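Late entry, written up from scratch paper. The run itself happened at the end of the previous shift, but nothing got recorded in the book at the time, so transcribing now.
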Amino acid sequence: MHRGSGDNARILCYQRKVKHTEARLGGLWSVGFGGHIEPIDREDPLTQEHGLLRASALRELVEETGLTVGGTALKLSGFINSDSNDVSSVHFGAVYTISLDELPDSEDEILSTVSEQAEPHQAKWISVADLKNMTGEGAAPEGSSFEDWSNIAINGIY
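Output as recorded:
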């Protein structure tokens, strides 16, 4: 999720609460959100317009961040699979970059919306230039780290 483009882009990142429903992600930073394709997605009118993957991503975006954008704000950037842990090894992810430029809200208002959701401990905008240097262990804000799939996405996209 970003505002701006190229090296001037700012990426919306969030840190999960330490006591997270998935202990392996507790306290880690993320550049995105995840979810599963659900049976409800097959019957969603957005599926006819945007396809199943994009419609599922739009639903997950609302559920996990509270943000709503049009289908054209999502750009398929690639796919992720990782054998770094048991959970990642049985999942395959579609990676979308999501432009938040169409939202009328200020960047502070967007941060507030995302922070009000159940999962994040905090959210912040990070420049692409700074983000590129944050993929190492302890290199994320406040000495924390980005979770595995975020590291893969950061290294692959930026």
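The first helix runs from residue 39 to 42.
(Scratch paper discarded after transcription.)
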